[in-house]
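Checklist before submission:
- one chain only
- standard amino acids only
- sequence pasted in full

Submission:
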Amino acid sequence: MSFMLLGILNAQASGGSPLSYDHLETVRLTSSSSGITFSGLNSYSDYKHLQIRYVNKANSNGGSGNIATTMRFNNDSSSSYTTHFLRGSAGGSGDFYLNQSNIVISQMPVTFGSQNDNMFAATVVNILDFQNSNKNTTVESFCVSESYTDDDVILTSGLFEKTTAIDSINFKADNGSGSFSTDSRFSIYGIRG
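Returned file contents:
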C-alpha cells in the first residue's frame, strides 16, 4: 500500500498522473437475458484500453451444469478465440481452449429455485489495445464467484486471433439454456494510455 501511494505521489510531483478510468456505459438488467452487448466502441477512440466490471448470476432455465460467462468481439462467431482458464477452488483446475467461438471469462452462481438468490459473481475484464488493428486483441480477467456448493477464484487470459479494431463486445450466459438474472450489471470504462 505504501509503495502504491509513493508511486502516485511521485507521478503527481513529476507532472504525470496515474491511469485514468472513465465510466462510459452501464447495462443493468431489469429482466433475465441470454446476453448483453456493448456496441459503437469505435466512438471511444480517445482510450487505449477498456475495462469491464460486472456482477452477475444466472438462471438455469432447466439446464444443468455450470453456466459460464463468455465473450465475443464484433459479433464474430468463427473459431478465432483462445482461452487460458485457471480456476482455484476445492476442485481447482486449469484449461486451455484453442480455436473456440468465444472466450470463456467466468463461472456464475446459478439460481435453482430459491437457492443462490443473493449470490453474484464479481468480475473485472481488461481488454488491451482494443482499437489497434495491427495486432491481435488480448484479454485478462479476474473473477470471484460463490455458490452453495463451491467458492471460486478464476483467472483468465484470452486472445482474439484477428487483427481488427474492436467495435462491439457481447457477453453471453453460455450453457445452451442459461440466462443472466435480473439485476446483473455490466459497466464499461475507458483507460487512457
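Reviewer check: The chain has a mean pLDDT of 81.
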